[in-house]
Every structure is written in C-alpha cells, then in structure tokens.
Amino acid sequence: MEESPLHQFELQRWVPISIGGLDLSINKAVVFMWVVIAVAAVLMVMAGSSRKLVPGKLQSLAEMMVDFIRTMIMETMGKDGMRFFPLVATLFVFILFSNYIGLIPGAYTVTSQIIVTAAFSFLVYGISLVVGFSLHGMKFLGILIPPGTPGWLVPLMVPIEIISQIARPISLAVRLFANMTAGHVMLAVLFGLTISGGVLIGWLPFVFTVAIYLLEFGIAFIQAYIFTILTCVYLGDAFHLHGHEEHAH
Amino acid sequence: MGLFKLRTPSRAEFCSRALAFRGFGMAPSQDPLYAGLGQAVRIGTELLAALIVGGGLGWAIDAYLLESAPWGLVVGLVFGLAAGIRSVYRSVQRWQVAVDNLNNRE
C-alpha cells in the first residue's frame, strides 16, 4: 500500500452543508477543532475549580501556564498590555492544544491548515491596526518611519517598512502552518519507509520516526510560544508606538 | 521511565522550589533555551516573508500598474530584502534588550 505522505491532510466532507453557495461542510478539521476546544475548556475548568493553596498536578500546570502568558505580556507590552490577556491566552491555549492533539496518531492537526493560522494572524494584525489607529490616530502612520531616521532616508524607509509590515501577518501564518505540516510529512515519510523497509532495514527509519516524534513535542510548544509572543510584540508596537525602550523592563 | 512522571511535590518542596524559581529571577519566557530556539525559528521566516512580499508587490506593479517589467520586480526584491534584514535586525535588537535586563537583574 503506497500512500502519499500528504494524504493525511486531505479533508473529506463528512456532513455536507451549503448555505447560499458557501461550503460550510463539517469535515475532520472542523471536528478536531471542536475536540481541541472541548479538551482545553474541560481541562482548564477542572484545573480552576479546586483553587487550593498548595495546588495539585492539574492546578499547578494551569498556574504555570497562566504565569507564563502573564510574564510574556508584561515583558513585551508592560502592565497596560494585560487588557489583551484573554485574547493572548486563548490563542496560546488553542494553538498549544491543537499542536499536541495533532501529535496523537490518527488525530488531525488543525494548525496544519494555512487558513486556520492565517485567520489567527490576520485577526491579530487587524486588532493591532485598530488599536494603533484608535489610540494614536493618524500619528500611528509614524510606525512607518523608525525613530532616528535622517530626513533624506524617509522616502527609502517608508516602502521598506510597508513591506515589513505586510510581511508580518504572512510570516506569522506561514511559520506555524509550515512547521506543523513539515513535521507531520516527515513523520509520514519516515514511517512509510519503516513499513516498506521490512525488519532488516526498517528499524533505521523507525528510530528516526521516534526521534522526530519526540522533537515534534518540543516544536509543538515552541511554535505556540512564538505565535503568542509575536502577537504580544505586534500588539505592543501598536500600543506604545516607538516606546519600547521605556517599557522594555 | 521516570522522565515523564508527574508527581505532586510536598509542601516544603513546593515552597523551596517556588523560592528558587523566584530567586533565580528568570521568567519562563526568558529561559535561554526557549528564547534561543524561538529566535532561530523566527528569523528564517521573517527574512523570507519580507522577500516574497517585496517581490510580489514589485511584480504586481509590473503586471497591473506600470507595465515596467522587469524593473518593478527587481526594485521590489531589493526593497523586500532590505525589509527582511531590517525586521531580523529589529528582532535581534529586542532580544538584546531582554538579555541586558536579565543581566541587570542578577
């Protein structure tokens, strides 16, 4: 049985729904998105229900996570940034849980669909634009001119900064999507080699499968972390507008 | 394997660990391992995304606005490269601030 390593990302319509020409069918990705939300919500509610002074396993994990997100926000945005805590924490928990649930054999990695990651990154970037323009008005366009730019460099810097601003949501989306997809393709290829290699040579790709699988556990966390910290950085840029130096500590 | 076993620490152990954690003054996101890996993974995509956006904008100007092929693409790629290097430079600069803060705190 030869199977393409990309086969795992194909989506079939399980429950075809079409409303006004829009394809809203329920497929594996949708179902696993619900699973991720359900698992994350149940675990978090369970962790938060006891509220002991000396926390149990689940509660200390949840407290570590909240503390982790809080430090991330404080470092990048300062104290005012805590108003974005719900958004940032939701993104982090959702991405973390979908990365980890995707690592269960047979499960679907929601974040391996670029439309999911793109929806998140454009949402974040859109919010940062709204926050920037509502806080600073037209002065927010000054983000295109970095502080300390000599006057004659301005016509050169503005297109460069426009490009790097447009690149922000794109790189945010592509990074998460590409890392999750590449990891799963690699696992599929190596495991395919194991199956077709037989006992004599198949152990070699199998060792690599296990090694890459363990590596993917780290990647799953690091990618969720990077996505969230960049969310904080972009929101902080819009929030402070060249003011990192005073808020950096 | 004991590596993945999770156990509840005793109260004394928990307090001493919490104190050690605070005393060390290192927030989890400043852990050098995560910070370093985070930086390493970020920089590549940032460079590439800016290059693609720059080239894409140049190409679009060529194709739809000025019919100036290939000069829009050439200029766009140069600007994209500059933007990519600029954003990598900026993120490394931000990292340096974090490292300085860490050193000052100790």
Structure description:
The complex is a heterodimer of chains A (249) and B (106). By secondary structure, chain A is an all-alpha fold. Chain A contains six helices and two strands; from the N terminus they run ββαααααα. In chain A, strands 1-2 form a two-stranded antiparallel ribbon. In chain A, a hairpin with a 2-residue loop joins β1 and β2. In chain A, α1 (28-50) crosses α2. Chain A is globular, with a radius of gyration of 22 Å. Residues 244-249 of chain A have low confidence and may be disordered. Chain B is mainly alpha-helical and 106 residues long. In chain B, α2 (32-66) runs antiparallel to α3. Residues 19-29 of chain B have low confidence and may be disordered. Chain B is built from three helices and no strands. Chain B has one domain (30-105). Chain B is elongated and about 70 Å long. The longest helix of chain B has 35 residues, at 32-66. Classes of the chains: A mainly alpha (249), B mainly alpha (106). Chains A and B meet through α2 and α5 of A and α2 and α3 of B.
